[in-house]
């Protein structure tokens, strides 16, 4: 049965680098109104695409709720392949950031807690999202929902780590260019990048290449409270084993949200503060200054680090 025989398209919702999204209607126990992500033809035509889609959807079928857009079905009809998911209302976090600029600290923490809760749901099923970025977060009032969680795992299975790096270079964890195993910790690094961007309007390593991901440690932008920065810094640890889990992150961010209420948003920065090079010290600075701050010293897992780092300090490596 062709996919058009199962779904009646009602209109185009958007287009992105992996394909387009259309609204559709169907029955059979699946929500009547759905969104269908149609993959690019070159992706759909690859051998094994249908099988990989079925495997991926089978692992997360119907997993959704307040923070995650549920995926219900997949299809691959010759040169047309796609995913069927909840029809989610709202604006992308990318669009909101472009219009409104950085969020107040309480808004950053609350948004991050909801994204982390969605990641926790996926990670409990041993499923890594691998495309956590503002474009894949939908905001509708106070509701925040994560989407886009099957396409990049499909590319990873077919193309390896380069697929992740090319899809989201600014949100790529350092272990990915090193060809290390890719899993849930990569999602937590990407979440740290998103939270950093929500604080100041720019990713921590904007304009840098893949090689820089391995050596550079993001610096703290001004105006980020200690409690919030301690979470972001933990997420941005270069060593994936030093990052907190999604469940831990959701708990920590939810716990500090009320204490951040009333604090103003920081300014939108044209570029991030100079990062720290773990090999040479702060770019343009000296290694001794970095060593004095303890940036290169080994220590306990970043999620347990205390007290919070002072302004300008980079996350633990």
TrEMBL record:
Gene3D superfamilies: Phosphorylase Kinase, domain 1, Transferase(Phosphotransferase) domain 1. The keyword ATP-binding applies. It is an enzyme of class 2 (transferase). SUPFAM superfamilies: Protein kinase-like (PK-like). Residues 7-254 form the Protein kinase domain. It comes from the Bacteria. Its EC number is 2.7.11.1. InterPro entries: Kinase-like_dom_sf, NEK_Ser/Thr_kinase, Prot_kinase_dom. It catalyses: L-threonyl-[protein] + ATP = O-phospho-L-threonyl-[protein] + ADP + H(+); L-seryl-[protein] + ATP = O-phospho-L-seryl-[protein] + ADP + H(+). Keywords: ATP-binding, Kinase, Nucleotide-binding, Serine/threonine-protein kinase, Transferase. GO terms for molecular function: ATP binding; protein serine/threonine kinase activity. Transmembrane segments: none annotated. This is non-specific serine/threonine protein kinase.
């Amino acid at each position: 049965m062709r996919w058009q025989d199962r779904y009646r398209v009602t209109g185009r919702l958007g287009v992105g680098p992996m394909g387009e999204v259309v609204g559709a209607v169907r029955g059979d126990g699946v929500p009547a109104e759905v969104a269908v992500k149609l993959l690019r033809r070159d992706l759909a035509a690859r051998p094994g695409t249908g099988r990989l889609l079925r495997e991926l959807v089978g692992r997360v079928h119907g997993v959704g709720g307040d923070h995650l857009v549920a995926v219900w079905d997949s299809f691959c009809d010759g040169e047309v392949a796609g995913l069927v998911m909840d029809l989610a209302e709202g604006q992308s976090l990318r669009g909101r950031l472009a219009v409104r600029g950085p969020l107040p600290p309480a808004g950053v923490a609350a948004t991050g807690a909801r994204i982390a809760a969605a990641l926790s749901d996926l990670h409990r099923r041993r499923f890594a999202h691998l495309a956590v970025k503002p474009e894949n977060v939908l905001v509708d009032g106070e509701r925040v929902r994560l989407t886009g969680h099957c396409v990049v795992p499909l590319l990873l299975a077919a193309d390896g780590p380069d697929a992740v790096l090319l899809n989201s270079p600014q949100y790529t964890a350092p272990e990915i260019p090193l060809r290390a195993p890719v899993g849930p910790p990569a999602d937590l690094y990407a979440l740290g990048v998103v939270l950093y961007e929500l604080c100041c309007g720019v990713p921590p390593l904007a304009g840098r290449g893949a090689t820089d991901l391995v050596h550079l440690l993001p610096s703290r932008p001004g105006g980020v409270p200690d409690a919030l920065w301690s979470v972001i810094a933990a997420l941005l640890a270069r060593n994936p084993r030093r990052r907190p889990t999604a469940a831990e992150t959701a708990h920590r961010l939810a716990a500090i949200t009320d204490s951040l209420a009333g604090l103003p948003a920081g300014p939108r920065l044209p570029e991030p503060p100079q990062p720290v090079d773990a090999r040479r010290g702060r770019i343009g600075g000296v290694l001794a200054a970095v060593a004095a701050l303890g940036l290169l010293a080994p220590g306990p897992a970043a999620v347990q680090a205390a007290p919070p780092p002072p302004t300008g300090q980079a996350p633990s490596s």
